[in-house]
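User: Structure with flavin-adenine dinucleotide, tokens only please.
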Amino acid sequence: MANKTQSDVLIVGSGITGLMAARTLTGRGLTVTVIERDEQPGGRMATYTIGPGMADVGAQFFTVSSPVFETWVNQWIDEDRVFEWSQRWSRSSVGATPFGSQPRYAARGGMCSLIDHLAADLDVRTRSRLVAIAPNGPSWEAIDEKSKTYEARAVLLTPPIPLALDLLKPAQITLPDADRAALEAITYMPCLAGLFWINSTLSLPEPGAIHLPNAQITWIADNRHKGISPNATIITVHAGPEYSRQLWHRTEWEILAALEASLRLYKDPNTHTIERQLKAWQYAMPIMPHPDRFYIPDNLPPLAFAGDAFGGPRVEGAALSGLAAGAALAARLA
Ligand SMILES: Cc1cc2nc3c(=O)[nH]c(=O)nc-3n(C[C@H](O)[C@H](O)[C@H](O)COP(=O)(O)OP(=O)(O)OC[C@H]3O[C@@H](n4cnc5c(N)ncnc54)[C@H](O)[C@@H]3O)c2cc1C
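Assistant:
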């Protein structure tokens, strides 16, 4: 049937979790379809174009603590896809003392370039928002908002948990009570992110970024200084979770004005803003992640939940979760 896609594994979400899982599964000879609601793959590792410039709007850098992720990152460094941006943030970052010296990595061309590399030889269908999954005998059927259907022996759900659980509702899929409670306990901090294309430079200290963990504005970074926006100075500003909640229902103009006010300290009088963009991340960072790297219910055909809410947060946690979930599903399907 032309409107039906069949594969061994259907992966929902093309963030780093979904792509690492997809690479694991295809590496073991399984067919994989990745479906993504957005126009571009990457999820929270997004890079936006603004004017002639580029800016990382979600994840700004990543760190490495596990040997498994280190192997991947070393390969990306060898291929010149990833570079060490900084060992530490500037001492002018108020309250930055808790952040010790360790490499913070960024991707050449922005986080989206690394994502494009990971997605390159995979079957990734963008602009396809899945709306429901349902068991179909020993396997699964799924449908997207354009009524396109997908059949797969296994499904991997990588959206933030509240969105993943929504996909179970139309078919009234139930999870064991304790497991469902553990998933429902995972909540997320929001983050309002502003991008500002300015006509000159900001006097941000090296390495062109300031991290202010407990302030209203937690992050200001110059993407030109970072090396990903050679043709224009684009500044990324992140509001902390509390300030993001306070501003959330204000107008876009008011939110951008509040974020832009944080740049005053670093501007000279001739600096002005040429263009602004707002991105509201409702599910930016998980609070109290699940202790395991993934979750597979035992009362259903093969179905895994994975992402940065499992076993450890941030880019590294997501990547490790994707790798582990991919390996677990491959073992189930062997
Ligand atoms: C503002 C911000 C700053 C951050 N800064 C850092 C940082 O500096 N360092 C760091 O290590 N981490 C950082 N993070 C966290 C990091 O970005 C995430 O932990 C990681 O990218 C999560 O990857 P993921 O694949 O698990 O989820 P996601 O990237 O969220 O991927 C899930 C994907 O599922 C898609 N999706 C959702 N619902 C559906 C549906 N129904 N159908 C189809 N597709 C769907 C989404 O569009 C998305 O692409 C930051 C996050 C944010 C938001």
